[in-house]
Amino acid sequence: MKGKQPENLRTSWIDCAHRMGYFCAENNETSLPFDGLMYRDAVVVAVKLKKVRYSPGEDFILEKKFPDEVAALRTLPLPSTVAREIWLRTQNERAFRRFYVMGDTTAEIEELTWEGYRNPHYREAYWKKAPYRINILFGKEGKGENGSPKTP
Known about the structure:
Layout: H1 9-19, E1 23-26, E2 36-40, E3 43-52, H2 62-65, H3 67-74, E4 83-90, E5 97-101, E6 106-108, E7 111-112, E8 117-118, H4 124-128
Parallel strand pairs: 3-4
Antiparallel strand pairs: 1-2, 2-3, 4-5, 5-6, 7-8
């Protein structure tokens, strides 16, 4: 066989979680529709892994693309303090896209600096020009040393 062996989805998930500082436990109970738990400090997350052939695009709605997986995560018999996430990986991208699954909605995680996670589809230029970005001014006049506004 020529070429590099493809990565196993489960081992690559565990490696990625370990790099972010999490410990992992795989789910061995087949009746529960999630692949494993990752935990650290005061955070516990139930994770469902999904591999697709083609990228779903930039702005897609997770509930419409994968309704069964989202519904299954919402009905897990776990306490509400356990977060639920779907980790999506495509054939051509070797990075995961993470999505929170909350009570009524889902949200794609763009960046978590304390974990060292950054979404491969993170649009940094868009967020830098977002209309709700403000500069917080400090001091008496709100000016820095050179007369420029200070930002945090």
